[in-house]
Design goal:
20% strand; globular; alpha/beta; seven-stranded mixed beta sheet; 13 strands
Length: 315
């Protein structure tokens, strides 16, 4: 029997990408709300109640309101907003982190999809702490280069407008107050005792993301070298098709440069371990709209449905 799926917020960037991935799925029935009713709470409530699974592709406040509308029903909610990622009772939608994460998604009724920057950061830092290499109280910093699609429709229009400002040609750093909305989950999910210093940068390209975490080897337990850390990542993500640990030294194939939009349109994530015995650089590369948003949401759905996790995705 087909599962009934409703996308609340199907006109946004993430919602549209999820909708597109469902067009050729034979195992689901999409419930399409009339355009004139997209903001009518009574109609939205009915669609949520009529669905087996509802995706929330909404701003935080609207996502919380939608959760309230779902009360009393067995509808499974998969929320792509920031609203519930660290809330009790919500499974964090990154199954590759541990068997417990995957099981929580499989059995959960409330699932929070990770943020894009957070996905890149947590991919690198969670295994380091879980495997006892990075102390939870270590000072950690990160920077992230992303395409402008991560800013939603407003930023996309800003970059793609005919009379766009010349300043958009230059990569722009933001989150200057160190209050980025992904910091809370970056700390909570990894187990860090304090939020990292985080510098996100938006570039003049549509999608793709490169997140890097620099570390001093002497601040790590056992002062490991890059090769041993690389081996740890291979063990931690062994058998996970969505997470690829690139061969040690793979950056040489691209002239020792790491591009940030090379995996646009792909739903997995790559890990690079570079540096030297004193200073180590961990990097993750993926599509901010793929593993960083809609791709991750659909992977969570596939786990809930018990089908191939890669169904409808691009690997």
């Amino acid at each position: 029997m087909k599962k009934k799926i409703f996308i609340d917020g199907s006109e946004g960037t993430t919602g549209l990408r999820i909708f597109e991935r469902f067009e050729h799925r034979e195992d689901i029935e999409l419930l399409k709300i009339p355009a004139e009713s997209r903001k009518d709470p009574a109609v939205i409530k009915q669609y949520i109640h009529d669905s087996d699974i509802t995706f929330l592709c909404l701003p935080d406040a609207a996502a919380r309101e939608a959760v309230a509308l779902a009360e009393g029903e067995d509808t499974i909610l998969i929320d792509t907003s920031t609203a519930h990622r660290t809330e009790p009772g919500w499974a964090y939608g990154y199954p590759e982190l541990s068997p417990a994460h995957r099981e929580a998604i499989r059995t959960g009724q409330r699932i929070a999809v990770p943020g894009c920057h957070a996905t890149g950061f947590i991919t690198l830092v969670y295994p380091m702490i879980a495997n006892g290499i990075l102390p939870a109280d270590a000072p950690v910093s990160a920077f992230s280069l992303t395409g402008y699609s991560g800013g939603g429709k407003k930023m996309i229009a800003e970059y793609e407008g005919e009379n766009r400002s010349p300043e958009l040609l230059s990569p722009r750093q933001y989150g200057l107050s160190q209050m980025h909305k992904h910091l809370k989950e970056m700390k909570a999910i990894t187990g860090l005792t304090r939020e990292p210093l985080f510098s996100p940068i938006v570039g003049d390209y549509y999608s793709g993301m490169l997140v890097s975490v620099p570390l001093y080897a002497q601040l790590l337990n056992g002062a490991p070298d890059p090769a041993s850390i690389h081996a740890m990542f291979e063990r931690h993500f062994a058998g996970e098709p969505f997470v690829r640990v690139l061969p040690f030294g793979a950056e040489a194939e691209s002239g020792n440069f790491l591009g940030s939009n090379n995996r646009s349109g792909w739903d997995g994530i790559e890990i690079f371990v570079t540096g030297n015995e004193e200073r180590i650089l961990l990097s993750s590369r993926f599509d901010n709209l793929g593993k960083g948003a809609s791709g991750a949401a659909i992977q969570c759905l596939n786990i809930v449905l018990g089908c191939d996790e890669a169904k409808g995705l691009y690997l």
